[in-house]
Amino acid sequence: MKLSLEIKDKSTPAELVKAEEFRKHIRKTEPHKHKNYFEIIFLSKGSGWHSIDYQTFEVMPPILFFIRREQLHYWNLTSEPEGYVLMLKRDFLDQSTDGELSQLLTKLSSLCSIQIPDYETVDSILKLLSIELKAANHYKRPMIEGLLKSLFAKILSFPRTKEKSELNRHDTFHAFHELLSTSETIKNNVAYYAEMLNTSPQNLNAICRTQTGQSASQIIATFIINEAKRLLEYTSLPVSKIAYELEFKDPSHFIKFFKRHANCTPQSFRQKIT
């Protein structure tokens, strides 16, 4: 068993956005993460399965997959795929003056997979992105931002009428979800995230319960447990080391935390999957 999870990076340090055709030779891959980017995969052809964390999706084109940085995924394809892969780093959004682009991506980050009826538009936008990203153009950045906004808006184009207060709750929840998704290490502290979102722990809990039926602490615990399960399943790190990786000061606290939320000890979980 490996001592660490495989982390792939298909971009260069200078590439903040990358769009390329899905590699047709890909059939099976080992479980892996991506180093520092959010990935959108569009397939117009192909068949098989795609696993993201603990969910397995049948590849039934036209289909989109969304993979956050902390998520582990792998492919088991049974026929030749065709489509595009879009990789987007957080630095690109941080440098953008268009706040709507970040808001759209925040909403996308909560998705795992969707089948789409209008695949020609998605295919065309991704093709244009792949061309413009390689071009030398003084107006390259606004063109890329415009194409990304068009793509994100098209994917999210299911109009709903909401009251302003509901919209604010919805946006706060997705911002919270994005913070958890993009953090190097999840902090088991509701107040920490509430402060970052400029709200109170009580309000953040109320928002989370409205959106999911779970408290903010339960959502945080889910992220921590999922990462713990990845490390237990795909590495041979001892439980004590995993505890420190997840910022538990005492391994015994981690074991109690894991047992409370996963209904088994870390060691028994590892034994069940081996």
Ordered list of secondary-structure elements with their pairings:
Blueprint: E1 6-8, E2 17-21, E3 32-34, E4 37-52, E5 55-59, E6 63-67, E7 73-89, H1 90-94, H2 99-108, E8 113-115, H3 119-132, H4 140-155, H5 164-182, H6 190-196, H7 201-212, H8 216-234, H9 239-245, H10 251-262, H11 266-273
Parallel strand pairs: 1-3
Antiparallel strand pairs: 2-7, 4-5, 4-6, 4-7, 6-8
Helix pairs in contact: 2-4, 3-4, 5-7, 6-7, 8-11, 9-10
Describe the structure.
There is one protein chain. It contains eleven helices and eight strands. The protein is α+β, with helices and mostly antiparallel strands. The radius of gyration is 20 Å and the shape is globular. The termini are close together.
User: Which value, in Å, is the CA radius of gyration?
Assistant: 20 Å
- How many strands, which pairing sense, and closed or not: the largest β-sheet? 6 strands, antiparallel
Overall pLDDT score: 86
Intertermini distance: 10 Å
Strand content: 15-25%
> What is the strand tally?
8
Counting DSSP H or I runs of 4 or more residues, the number of helices is 11
**Helical/strand content category:** alpha+beta
List segments where confidence is low: pLDDT < 50 over at least 5 consecutive residues. Answer: 158-167
Question: What is the N-to-C succession of helices and strands?
Answer: EEEEEEEHHEHHHHHHHHH
What percent of residues adopt helix (DSSP H or I)?
Answer: 40-55%
Broad shape: globular
Give a short overview:
With 274 residues, the chain is an alpha+beta fold. The chain has eleven helices and eight strands.
